[in-house]
Amino acid sequence: MVTNSGAAFLMRYANYVRHECSLGVSGGFGMKRIMIIGGQGAGKTTLALRLGKITGLPVVHIDKSYHLPRWKVRPQAAALAELEGYANSERWIMDGDDFRSFGPRLKRAELIIYLHVSTLRRVARVIKRAVQSFDKPRVDLPDGCRGKVSFGGLKWAAYGYPMKIRPAMHKAMAQVDVPVFHLRSESDVEKLETKLAVRG
Description:
The protein has 7 helices and 8 strands; from the N terminus they run αββαβββαβαβααβα. The chain has 200 residues and is an alpha/beta fold.
């Protein structure tokens, strides 16, 4: 059970906390379907790409399914159908905080990696990323789309995710028996990568 003060709020979700995995145990390694979740700027894409290289699992970036070139919005039904198809495949690492596709991913996942990064740190990373990648392609962006600065994106990172999505994710995860690696620091991430690499 998680006992450190940084995760005290999780006590509301007893089942979720009960099924968290310690980084010191081997359970969860060798899984074929891994969800990586966390708010914007948490480091999901970076970790997904690293774990993809270590494990050989194909990486799926959730956000790429929702837009067409030049940021044209794709019909939601088509996007969700595509993501459900990915979720139903046998091997994947899927990263993203989109709650619309959370159910199908959660239903199929064998392991959840939850990047719990402070809001201030995430927002700082989002701003830095927006500046560095402005008008440039990124691996996690839809084909034909380039990085942009969005006030709406910053607002979502600072308010929308922690106030709306994170509580909903906790509640959903409390209903399933899926192991969760709850990573709160770069050190936690490095430990997980090292353990996966050793077992790879």
